[in-house]
Design goal:
With about 425 residues, the chain is mostly helical. Helix content is about 55%, strand content about 5%. The protein has a domain at about 1-110. The chain has helices at about 5-10, 30-45, 50-60, 65-75, 80-105, 120-125, 130-140, 145-150, 155-175, 190-205, 230-235, 240-255, 260-270, 280-290, 295-310, 315-320, 345-355, 390-405, and strands spanning about 180, 185, 325-330, 340-345. A two-stranded antiparallel ribbon has the order 1-2. The protein has a two-stranded antiparallel sheet with strand order 3-4. The protein is elongated and about 95 Å long.
Length: about 425
């Protein structure tokens, strides 16, 4: 971020705005100012050094009033001296222009006008334009780091992707305890508006456009939604910006498809975000996306069933052929002997859950359990099939159990497609 931008942003919040116009049309630059700026631009190419210096000082004083002329001169003027000096003046003029537009936006307390502010159009599309959305945006733009990130949303996908990656790492460094000169610097809390700005940007830009830092490739917005400021806004509607933040978070959850994100989201979605309507399709996406770690798939499936119970019957059936490895279960056999290892697959978790839901017993289906564990399909790592033959027999047994309950002959032990019509839930157990 440029020093000019930082100074202007600090000045913006140093004192409240009084008497500013809320209409962006009032920001139009008078023709006389543009004419003055063009005359000064010509003097930037003077053969007299003092005249060039004086013209540069006057243009700097003009601030945003000179910006359109400076932009043109920096890119098209044939004199390299003029192009160089104009480009040096542009950051300050641009910062002055942004401050004026922010002042105007803040004065428009009733949101009557359209404002040309970085990220505002996308923000309103995702969050809305009501008072709750506006208040959050106001707090977001109090940070020069957030303003800089929002400005990048109008750039190329490469530039905005890099800006998001850099912002992630800057925020991540703050939540880590660090050794600075032999002294431990504790982790710093991240304000809600900073988290909101980051995940908003991640929602706007496809994940594939955001480069990964080789050492910290796992760092995404998922690292910050469990921060205290975020969980407070999620769990307590009385928290400042709670409603507007949750609008962003819902859209962000809906757009998560990258494996790196999904590998980190099962726990927070299952624990903190289960009240969001987007949590159910997101948990299903974690379960079915290739490349997600097996244990994470099993964990997501467990949270999904805890939340939806028998409503996920058809989805569970669709997983009865999924051979993703969830975990390895160790069974002790005798003293001084290595424990036996058995694999628990995603299809095993789905079957165990279906057995629990339909009032049957896992032991009747050939599941084995480490000593001391009570059979429970919702506790990963506490059950497995001892052989592949036992697994196959269990699948056939469940298919015929379904046949017996429905009074129909099954075509095979293969489950129905996920979108197959018919069953909306498990058939009742006959007594």
């Amino acid at each position: 971020m440029s020093r000019a931008m930082a100074l202007v942003m600090c000045g913006l919040w140093a004192a409240p705005l009084f008497g500013g116009s809320p209409d962006p049309k009032d920001l139009a630059i008078p023709p006389g100012e543009l004419s003055k700026a063009r005359d000064l631009i010509r003097r930037l190419g003077s053969e007299v050094y003092r005249e060039r210096e004086e013209a540069q000082v006057e243009l700097a004083k003009m601030g945003r009033m000179a910006r359109p002329v400076l932009l043109e001169a920096a890119s098209t003027d044939p004199d390299p001296e003029v192009r160089f000096r104009s480009s040096r003046l542009l950051p300050k003029a641009g910062a002055d222009d942004l401050k004026a537009r922010l002042d105007t936006f803040l004065a428009d307390t009733e949101s009557k006008y359209e404002h040309n502010l970085p990220g505002l159009k996308q923000f309103r599309k995702i969050v809305g334009s009501d008072k709750l959305a506006r208040d959050l945006f106001v707090d977001i733009i109090k940070s020069p780091h957030n303003v800089e990130l929002l400005q990048m949303l109008d750039k190329s996908s490469v530039e905005v992707g890099r800006a998001i990656s850099d912002r992630r790492m800057g925020m991540y460094s703050l939540i880590q305890a660090r050794n600075v000169g032999g002294r431990i610097q504790p982790a710093q809390p991240i304000p809600l508006q900073d988290i909101a700005c980051l995940i908003f940007a991640e929602t706007v830009i496809p994940t594939k456009e955001i480069p990964r830092n080789n050492m910290w490739s796992y760092v995404t917005g998922a690292q910050f939604i469990t921060q205290q400021s975020s969980t407070s806004a999620i769990n307590n509607n009385a928290t400042l910006h709670s409603e507007a933040y949750k609008r962003i978070l819902g859209q962000w959850m809906e757009s998560r498809e990258d494996v790196t994100d999904l590998n980190q989201l099962a726990y927070p979605v299952g624990q903190f975000l289960r009240g969001f309507k987007e949590s159910v399709p997101l948990l299903r996406r974690i379960v079915t996306t290739e490349g997600v770690q097996g244990y994470i798939k099993g964990q997501a499936l467990t949270y999904l069933v805890q939340q939806r119970k028998k409503e996920e019957y058809d989805f569970l059936r669709s997983l009865l052929t999924n051979d993703a490895l969830v975990t390895t279960v160790f069974f002790g056999i005798a003293p001084n002997q290595a424990p036996m290892q058995h694999q628990c697959l995603l299809r095993d978790v789905a079957l165990a859950t279906l057995i629990d839901q339909t009032g049957q017993k896992m032991v009747d289906y050939g599941f084995s359990f480490p000593q001391g564990h009570i059979p429970n399909g919702q506790i990963l790592g506490t059950y497995a099939f001892p052989t592949e033959e036992a697994r196959a027999a269990a699948m056939v047994k469940f298919a015929f159990w379904r046949m017996k309950q429905s009074g129909k002959e099954p075509a095979s032990a293969t489950p129905a497609p996920k979108d197959a019509p018919g069953e909306a839930g498990p058939p009742p157990t006959k007594k």
